[in-house]
Amino acid sequence: MSTKKNESAAVSQVRIAVTDLANELVFETGASIAEVKSAVAVAISGGTPLTLQDIRGHEIIVAGDKIGFVDIGAATERRVGFGAL
Question: Which residues are CB-neighbours of 74 under 8 A, at least 6 positions away?
Answer without folding.
Answer: 11, 12, 13, 33
